[in-house]
Write a structure and sequence with these properties.
With 384 residues, the chain is an alpha/beta fold. The chain has 12 helices and 13 strands. It has 2 domains: 123 residues, Aspartate Aminotransferase, domain 1 (Alpha-Beta Complex), CATH 3.90.1150; 255 residues, 3-Layer(aba) Sandwich (Aspartate Aminotransferase, domain 2), CATH 3.40.640.10. Helices cover 39% and strands 15% of the residues. Strands 2-8-7-6-5-3-4 form a 7-stranded mixed β-sheet, sandwiched between helices. Strands 9-10-13-12 form a 4-stranded antiparallel β-sheet, covered by helices on one side. Helix 9 packs parallel to helix 12.
Length: 384
């Protein structure tokens, strides 16, 4: 049976053919580090990395490409802000929908720097209400951290309103766009977000081991680098460079990954994020409509009116989530993810924490209506 891949919230697959070709270009032809040498191939690598940075900047509405920092992944981007910005006795407002990439650094900072955190709960539709964020902000609040969309329920959060409300009360905002970059249009200039973090390997369709962080103008003065080392610039100086992006990019870049990301962003730009968004919206509607007609399926998340990305969580009566995922893979070649999805507080809110979580179906840029029909057929068969 042909593989039906529905784990795009973990990493996207397949990748555009151009991504593979760009990665192989470095392995087969260029084979040089970035910013370290002056021969022809090294200069070409540096040019392509600069091109990737510019593509990413344009893709998210950033006017200055130096404000795009390459990281190892989305987790690395989030850690850079949390560990580089927060100081002793600071206060953070975040939410129960967050990933462990936020929750665990905040736990560490609570022990190492006495950083306190207020957790805001979503409403019954999974939406974090602006008023709840406003009420949680205090004079000591330095940062609000919010996922653009839940990786468990797929609910899209009102980040524009949250950013505006936080700024009005003097707090900075870090948006985790792990589930939305590449799936929804994002314009950091219009949003006026302070920090936006994203992996390169999910909706952006790049290789694993890539990530980006957008830093708003002026924020680099208060955001410390958390890793120091060689940058290929100002090598005679003992201190880390203070200019962007070198301040945050110590060590050799993941050149094959970044070149692959370059090709991925070009693909998305040419295709159009609006086209990807519409495709996933139609498939999500098809999936939810079909699931809601099958007895013995519990679907977690919003009704079809609430805006969401292509992430749907469910359970089947009488089957544990991991058991259901194993059956779908072994018997139908349908590949999904089971468990807590690194978001324990969201599962606590859904009352699925103690029962082992949910099965998550997550759609991507290359899924089809025929695949969704096969998923629904398999679940009908299992439930019968």
């Amino acid at each position: 049976m042909k593989r039906i891949y529905l784990d795009n919230a973990a990493t996207s697959w397949p990748k555009p053919q151009a991504v593979k070709e760009a990665v192989c270009l470095h392995f087969d032809t260029l084979g040089a580090s970035s910013g370290r040498s002056g021969y022809q191939e090294a200069i070409e690598v540096e040019r392509l990395i600069s091109e990737t940075r510019l593509r990413l900047a344009r893709f998210i509405g950033c006017q200055d490409s130096s404000r795009i920092v390459f990281t190892q992944n989305g987790t690395d981007s989030l850690n850079l802000v949390l560990h580089g910005l927060l100081q002793e006795n600071d206060h953070v407002v975040t939410t129960e929908i967050e990933h462990n990439s936020v929750l665990r650094p905040l736990h560490d900072l609570s022990e190492s720097r006495n950083v306190s955190t207020t957790m805001v709960s979503p409403n019954s539709e999974g939406i974090v209400e602006v008023q709840s964020i406003q009420q949680a902000i205090t004079p000591e609040t330095r940062l609000v951290v919010i996922s653009h969309a839940s990786n468990v329920t797929g609910v899209i959060q009102p980040i524009a309103e949250i950013i505006s409300a936080a700024h009005a009360q003097g707090a900075k905002v870090l948006v985790d766009a792990a589930q939305t970059a590449g799936h929804l249009p994002i314009d950091v200039g219009q949003l006026q977000v302070d920090y936006l973090a994203s992996p390169g390997h999910k909706g952006l369709l790049g290789p694993l081991g890539t990530g980006m962080l957008y830093i708003a103008p002026g924020e680099e003065t208060s955001l410390k680098s958390i890793r120091q080392g060689g940058t290929g610039t100002s090598s005679e100086q003992p201190e880390q460079p203070s200019v962007l992006p070198q301040k945050y990019e110590s060590g050799s870049h993941n050149v094959p990954g970044i070149l692959g990301l370059n090709a991925a962003i070009k693909y998305l730009t040419d295709r159009g994020v609006a086209d990807v968004q519409k495709s996933i919206e139609l498939l999500t509607d098809q999936l939810i409509t079909g699931l809601d007609e099958i007895p013995d399926i519990w679907r977690y998340g919003p009704n079809q009116i609430t805006p969401q990305i292509g992430v749907v969580s469910l359970n089947v009566n009488g089957l544990e989530s991991h058991e259901l995922a194993t059956i779908l893979d072994s018997s139908y070649r349908i590949q999904v993810r089971a468990g807590l999805h690194c978001a324990p507080l969201m599962h606590r809110s859904l009352n699925t924490l103690e029962t082992g979580g949910t099965v998550r179906i997550s759609l991507g840029a290359f899924n089809t209506s025929a695949e969704i029909s096969k998923v629904l057929e398999a679940l009908r068969e299992l439930c019968s």
